[in-house]
Amino acid sequence: MIKSLKAQWFIFCWLSLLAGCAVNPLTGREQPMFISEQEEFALGDRMAPQVERQLQGAIKNEQLQRYIDRIGQRIARVCHRPDWDYRYVAVEDISINAFALPGGHIFITRGLLEKLHSEAQLAAILGHETAHVVARHSAAAMSKENLLNVGILAAAVSGQVDPRAVQIADLAARFLMLSYSRQDEQEADLAGLDYMVAAGYDPQAMVETMQMLQDLDKVQPIEFFSTHPSPENRIRYLKETIAFKHLGSEGLKVGKEDYQTTVLDFLKTYPRPRARPGS
After folding, report:
1. What does the alpha-carbon distance between residue 127 and residue 104 come to, in Å, rounded to a whole number?
2. Which letter does DSSP use for residue 199 in this model?
3. What's the half-sphere exposure (Cβ side, CA atoms, 13 Å) at 252?
4. Higher pLDDT, 15 or 257
5. How far apart are alpha carbons 182 and 113 in whole angstroms?
6. What does the pLDDT read at residue 225?
7. Active site residue 223
8. Cross-strand bridge partners of residue 153
9. I need a surface site. Which of 108, 118, 193, 273 has the fewest CB within 10 A?
């Protein structure tokens, strides 16, 4: 037992020394980083099944899942780190939300899919979450909130799932409550806007999505804005950025019909799951 703890501590210290700082490709600035990229990928892979289960599992429709992933991959190909492995999954949870795990696992909830109206709006959400992955915001936030410890890091590196299954499950649960900083959110908004335009989508869809979510939040607070603050300011700087940076993008894809037939028509006939306990 003592040798095992010493080995874990050695791995922890070694990874910390290797990680140190990392350059945020969205800003070009160095940021403190507690874990290496390889550690981050391994941790995301360990967490993904737990998070998917806590979000009531993937929606059981291959056509819809292929569609979500296809739009996500269009975004991934034009992001700052196209060499990473991104996985986009629609989950059954009826809350209005989306999540980006460390390393490239991205989830969008049924509740949010039901509120969107076009493929371009979907691209806006996936672009935003992809930008969080690229900037490694999740790993940085987890480090700041002290969600990582020696045992979890060692389990992620070694690939030994069973001895640390409870810890990984607990980490996944707490991750869903994790908050990003305002700076993180603005970086993800602006980079996501660039990504969706580069992927061929009308940038106005991101403004439409934020306005729609803001209206919903006024009626009843929604989870997407619980960790995504200041909707009014976000709409303002998105409009300003489009006006100055993305002039001439009016003819880009919106995709209302594709989204309607592939996503909304299916979800109308597909039974909704029960809400998560406590939601």
Report:
1. 12
2. T
3. 25
4. 257
5. 24
6. 63
7. no
8. none
9. 273
For residue 171, what are the CA distances in angstroms to 42, 48, 147, 167, 214? Answer: 14, 11, 7, 6, 29
Whether residue 182 contacts residue 229, with contact meaning beta carbons closer than 8 Å, is answered with yes
With contact defined as beta carbons under 8 Å apart, do 234 and 186 qualify?
A: yes
Report whether 115 contacts 96 (CB < 8 A): yes
Alpha helices in 55-203 (DSSP H): 62-78, 110-113, 119-135, 137-144, 150-158, 165-175, 182-198
Backbone angles phi, psi at 108, to 5 degrees: -125, 135
Find the distance separating the first CA and the last CA of the chain, reported in whole Å: 40
* pLDDT single digits (tens) 120-144: 999 999 999 999 999 998 877 776 6
State whether residue 89 is helix, strand or coil. strand
Alpha helices by DSSP H, listed for 136-176, are 137-144, 150-158, 165-175
Sheet of 87-91, strand order:
87-91, 105-109, 98-100
- Which of these is catalytic: 39, 52, 119, 129? 129
- Report strand pairing: 105-109 vs 21-24: unpaired
Q: For 25, which DSSP code?
A: T
Residue at 146: amino acid letter: N
Measured CA to CA in angstroms, residue 14 lies from 4, 9, 19, 179, 258 at distances of: 15, 8, 9, 28, 49
Q: What is the pLDDT of residues 133-189, one digit of tens each?
A: 999 988 777 766 665 554 555 555 555 544 445 566 677 777 777 778 888 999 999
